[in-house]
Amino acid sequence: MAEDLIISSGTKAEQYETLLPQIKALIEGEPDLIANLANITGALKEQFGWFWVGFYIVRQEELVLGPFQGPVACTRIRKGKGVCGSSWESAIAIIVPDVEKFPGHIACSSLSKSEIVIPVIRNNTVVAILDVDSATLNTFDSTDQFYLERIVDMIEWLCR
Ligand code: SME
């Protein structure tokens, strides 16, 4: 497909509905994990303009920073630490309306105010996580969780 993204300006759900088939098309036929993670972060950042969008990949005992869009970030996070490490440990998505109220939140930037983390699960094991940060409070809800989970479902087969 052409590498131009069609940007939607509708409701949040409409924006995801426009974006998802484009992400699917970008991934289809490309077996390289890093290339696909990079394009997913680019597409999400371009559509929604969030502060930070990126992946952390499970490497032995730590999450290691993968492709992302936004300011530089912490490179390694241990299991159970911060929002990302908690999502890895529990294997469930975590929505944080106000990062200052999440015990143990890891502040890569003081500008990040709310966050959502989605685990990428393959064969019942968390292999990576998608982390999205917003510069405003209360950005993420169940609609984001629903669609971001659809997106990570598209790439779990590439993670091993
Ligand atoms: N806030 C995350 C750390 C990663 S950065 O936000 C990019 C956490 O608490 O795990």
Number of domains: 1
What is the CATH architecture annotation? 2-Layer Sandwich
Q: Please outline the major beta sheet.
A: 6 strands, antiparallel
Oligomer: single chain
- Principal-axes geometry comes out as globular
| Low-confidence blocks of residues | none
Question: What is the N-to-C succession of helices and strands?
Answer: HHEEEHEEEH
- Let me know the CATH homologous superfamily: GAF domain
Task: Give an overview of the whole structure.
- This protein is α+β, with helices and mostly antiparallel strands.
- It has a single domain, classed as GAF domain (Beta-Lactamase, 2-Layer Sandwich), CATH 3.30.450.
- Helix content is 34%, strand content 26%.
- It has helices at 12-27, 33-48, 82-90, 142-155, and strands spanning 52-59, 62-69, 76-78, 94-96, 114-122, 125-134.
- It has a six-stranded antiparallel sheet with strand order 3-2-1-6-5-4, with helices on both faces.
- Strand 5 and strand 6 (125-134) form a beta hairpin.
- Helix 1 (12-27) runs antiparallel to helix 2 (33-48) and helix 1 (12-27) runs parallel beside helix 4.
- The mean pLDDT is 94.
- Residues 52, 73-74, 77, 82-85, 105-106, 108, 112, 115, 131, 133 line the site of methionine sulfoxide (SME).
